[in-house]
């Protein structure tokens, strides 16, 4: 049987970091992991994060739980036929309800070949401490992703002190007392924790909440028409409303040869140089994106 894990967790919590770390460990064991990646927004920004030799299928049309199960079924079927992997990792969008996503991936079509090991949820520990600032619907999604998990990563634990970490751990255990909670930095989870998971997922676990219908999360693609000064760009980022949860992509910064990789999650900005020319565009994910004023040099696509 092929083990299947569903990776859940809110926008920018560290799912891709976890995915990369797990892939590395499986490959070191001589195993072939395959990935199904569901991005919010139509841009495959994260697919480059997975090594070229790892079979990858993308679902870009929206949330795995809202687009229905047929496309997911087809992607899983073709992974099985074309690659015969040892393990399948399904990375859901940060906007997906884990149980609905699980519903979308469970199908009698391949029930005899796949073994669903469960939901691994990544929590941004800093966000937990600031969750009251989230809108009620988004906060509910954040909590649901943790409530239904079988294993929880308290990621970004490097950003918290000991007291804060124990507050987060006990808070999470209060809403989910059956999952193991592990503190991580950059999703560095030893594979042994996944292997220990006992498959306990079946269709009766699936109760539809349709939380997705109430969420007003949207994604917006911004293209850059010219270079921008890093200082101006960062000022613009600082002044964005707190309902912009996640941004990622490439920005053409003055003085740089190639557009730089830009990542943003809950007030934290990260820049990395690129050594090839990537399209200068970023995707924003959040609520009320229509109200945002764009920086000069950006084309609002
Ligand atoms: N300080 C710190 N930063 C982290 C940690 N884990 C991830 N990050 C940063 O957080 C940002 C988001 O990480 P990703 O792994 O891309 O998160 P994600 O959940 O895949 O994001 P989406 O797929 O867009 O929802 C990146 O800038 C990471 O470098 C961590 O443990 N500590």
From TrEMBL:
Keyword set includes Hydrolase: yes
Transmembrane segments: none
Pfam family name, one: cobW
Annotated catalysed reactions: GTP + H2O = GDP + phosphate + H(+)
PANTHER family: COBW DOMAIN-CONTAINING PROTEIN, COBW-RELATED
Family label: Belongs to the SIMIBI class G3E GTPase family. ZNG1 subfamily.
Name by which UniProt lists this protein: CobW family GTP-binding protein
Organism annotation: Chungangia koreensis
Lineage: Bacteria, Bacillati, Bacillota, Bacilli, Lactobacillales
């Amino acid at each position: 049987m092929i083990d299947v894990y569903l990776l859940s967790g809110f926008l920018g919590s560290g799912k891709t970091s976890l995915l990369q770390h797990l892939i590395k460990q499986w490959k070191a064991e001589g195993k072939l992991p395959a990935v199904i990646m569901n991005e919010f927004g139509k841009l495959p920004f994260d697919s480059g994060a997975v090594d070229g030799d790892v079979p990858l299928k993308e679902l870009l049309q929206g949330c795995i739980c809202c687009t229905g199960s047929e496309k997911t079924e087809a992607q899983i079927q073709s992974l099985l036929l074309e690659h015969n992997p040892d393990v399948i990792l399904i990375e859901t969008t940060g906007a997906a309800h884990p149980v609905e996503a699980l519903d979308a991936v469970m199908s009698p079509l391949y029930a005899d070949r796949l073994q669903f090991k469960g939901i691994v949820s990544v929590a941004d520990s800093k966000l937990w401490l600031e969750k009251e600032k989230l809108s009620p619907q988004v906060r509910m999604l954040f909590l649901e992703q943790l409530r239904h998990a079988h294993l929880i990563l308290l990621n970004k634990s490097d950003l918290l002190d000991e007291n804060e970490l124990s507050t987060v751990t006990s808070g999470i255990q209060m809403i989910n007392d059956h999952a193991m909670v592990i503190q991580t930095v950059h999703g560095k989870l030893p594979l042994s924790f996944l292997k220990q998971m006992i498959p306990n997922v079946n269709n009766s676990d699936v109760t539809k909440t349709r939380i997705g219908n109430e969420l007003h999360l949207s994604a917006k693609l911004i293209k850059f028409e010219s270079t921008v000064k890093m200082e101006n760009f960062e000022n613009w980022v600082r002044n964005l409303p707190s309902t912009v949860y996640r941004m990622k992509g490439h920005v053409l910064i003055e003085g740089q040869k190639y557009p730089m990789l830009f990542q943003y999650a809950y007030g934290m900005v990260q820049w990395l140089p690129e050594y090839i020319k990537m399209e200068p565009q970023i995707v924003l994910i959040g609520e009320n994106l229509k109200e945002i004023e764009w920086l000069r040099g950006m084309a609002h696509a």
